[in-house]
Amino acid sequence: MTDTSGTPRTSRKPIHLAAHFPGVNNTTVWTASPQALGSQIDFASFTHLAQTAERGLFDFFFLAEGLRLREHQGRVHDLDVLGRPEAITVLSALAAVTERLGLAATVNATFNEPYELARRLASLDHLSGGRAAWNVVTSSDAFTGENFRRGGFLDRADRYTRAAEFVATARELWDSWPPGAERARAGAFAHHGRHFDIEGHFSVERGPQGHPVVIQAGDSSEGREFAAATADVVFTRHGTLEAGRRFYADVKGRLAAHGRRPADLKIMPGVTFVLGDTAAEAQEKAAEIRHQQISPQTALLTLEQIWGVDLSRYDPDGPLPDIEPDYDAQLSQGRVRHADPRAVVASWRALAEEKGLSIRQTVIEATGRQSFIGTPAAVAEEMDTFVQTDAADGFILVPHLTPGGLDDFVEQVVPLLQERGSFRTRYTGSTLRAHLGLAQPS
């Protein structure tokens, strides 16, 4: 049930929803479906997904970004979509064709500078009427750094210390225009720190929501601590109810040490979904999607990234290779490596032996991504259970089709969440902070 304001009654936690534009990798499915005929570059694709999310009353639209095309064995990874326009540029254009939807850009804190990025984000916040967000990511990857003058300069151990100072510095710049400030001193700033030593006058007035919303994705202990100290939203990947509850309790439990309350940070795992008229139909569709995402070529390249050797002579429909992996080799550049490849190899071999799986079947089984599979009613109930039992505050939906992958969810699941009293029936605020229930910075 909802009250007359359009927000869920306080007896139930409200579910927060966001839309992730499908990624530039093999998990995006290209088929003859009318829902999958859009380009990754055409503005019409971004417009369709963003306007669908706004029709569904989502909190925000989320764009990932990479600073270099990934490579495999020295060649551009041809299973990836090659390139995408810069995120803030796309979101600035979307601000003109949406009214309430938050606009979140992924921008690297390692290869950017606070003044320049704070200015771009403040500009987006003004253009959108207070809907800007920044997903803070870091990199210690010298491969990506080759695109920059100081490529490879940052030790891995320093990436979060630089990111924390980066965010703090950006907030100092946004705060340099206090409400009612006299023109003579508006925008004056001075920051002298380990990573940044800057002073001058910030050229953009404080935005409608004070600070753009800060999003952070990181599951390591240092990433969780950074989120507890700094972020407004955590983008995580925990898929099970139990794992979600553990992560939720851990991160929320860190907030008090930083003078923050549980409500100050929203935890929103990235999830996928498959809908069907029956549970069996949904499972069948999910299996079909996984076979489309993991082609024979994809299966071999995925295995090569773990085994560290060329496996092109192996049949993807045959058994796992019996050769010993080269754990020190790195055939792929620009991808996050498994923390413990030996453990991955051992678990995949055990899985394949137990179930009699081929290479392709093993990769499909081991890398399955669908989070919620079932009828619209079952998916709505399961999502609601995650939120009401403190496994999440909401979800960032990652559809597998461009640009129509969100259509069915908005038409079939959102109304059921509204009937349960867990999701808004209309926007009641104009800024992203209002959608998320976050306080305005003083």
TrEMBL record:
E.C. designation(s): 1.14.-.-
CDD domains for this protein: Nitrilotriacetate_monoxgenase
Keyword 4Fe-4S among UniProt keywords: no
Keywords: Flavoprotein, FMN, Monooxygenase, Oxidoreductase
Luciferase-like domain: residues covered: 35-389
Pfam family, one: Bac_luciferase
SUPFAM superfamilies: Bacterial luciferase-like (SSF51679)
Signal peptide span: none
Annotated InterPro entries: Diverse_substr_monoxygenases (IPR051260), Luciferase-like_dom (IPR011251), Luciferase-like_sf (IPR036661), NTA_MOA (IPR016215)
Binding site for FMN: T106, Y160, S220
Organism domain of life: Bacteria
GO molecular function: monooxygenase activity; oxidoreductase activity, acting on paired donors, with incorporation or reduction of molecular oxygen
Annotated family: Belongs to the NtaA/SnaA/DszA monooxygenase family.
Protein name, as recorded: NtaA/DmoA family FMN-dependent monooxygenase
Organism listed in the record: Streptomyces buecherae
